[in-house]
Amino acid sequence: MHEAREIPNIRDYLESLRLKLAAVESVPLPAPDDRKSAAVLVPLMHREGALEVLYTRRSDRLASHTGQVAFPGRRTNATDIAVTPFVGVIEGDPQLRRDPKEVAEIFHVPLQALSDPRYRGSYRWKRNGTSSDYPAILYAGQVIWGLTYSLTLTFLQLIDGIVHASQP
């Protein structure tokens, strides 16, 4: 659905995406004492003519959200945070380094796979003796669920139609 080969002009595609997003200057900054705000980056990797989304899997040694897939970002409080997503494009194939204390793995998923229903499923989260099922994207052994899943779906809805609009 969103493969690079379906996009005749990647620059036009990215410009169309930029026009759908709010300008970074228009995003209000949190108050200096606001400890419940966070920001994440939805990194689009533009490599060899393809677009992929970069994710991280959190370290199992962290105090919260251990082993969960996330976007790169920062928060200051573990509860009731408001998350502001930003989209950025990374050109080429840069050498990415992870901090092993925080990140177990860095991986990327093609846009087409994120949109493909064959990669949809559920994740059973167990906590304090109870379990709940959540919708998820299951790709290459990774489980994208929770807030990261929700942000991914919102991004996919945002870009829906750009591919068709950029084709001749």
Total beta strand runs: 9
From the alpha carbons, calculate the radius of gyration and give it in angstroms.
Answer: 17 Å
The biggest sheet amounts to: 6 strands, mixed
- Helical content band: 10-25%
| Percent in strands | 35-45%
| SSE string, helices as H and strands as E | HEEEEEEHEEEHH
DSSP helix count?
4
CATH architecture descriptor text: Alpha-Beta Complex
Give a verbal description of the structure.
- It is built from 4 helices and 9 strands.
- By secondary structure, it is of the alpha+beta class.
- The protein has one domain: Alpha-Beta Complex (Nucleoside Triphosphate Pyrophosphohydrolase).
- Strands 1, 2, 3, 4, 5 and 6 form a 6-stranded mixed beta sheet that branches. It has a 3-stranded antiparallel beta sheet with strand order 7-8-9.
- The longest helix has 14 residues, at 146-159.
- The two termini are 16 Å apart.
Outline of the structure:
21% of the residues lie in helices and 39% in strands. It is α+β, with helices and mostly antiparallel strands and 168 residues long. The chain has a single domain, classed as Nucleoside Triphosphate Pyrophosphohydrolase (Alpha-Beta Complex), CATH 3.90.79.
Helix/strand layout:
Blueprint: H1 10-20, E1 37-47, E2 50-58, E3 69-70, E4 73-75, E5 82-91, E6 103-110, H2 111-115, E7 120-127, E8 130-139, E9 142-145, H3 146-159, H4 162-166
Parallel strand pairs: 1-5
Antiparallel strand pairs: 1-2, 1-4, 2-3, 2-6, 7-8, 8-9
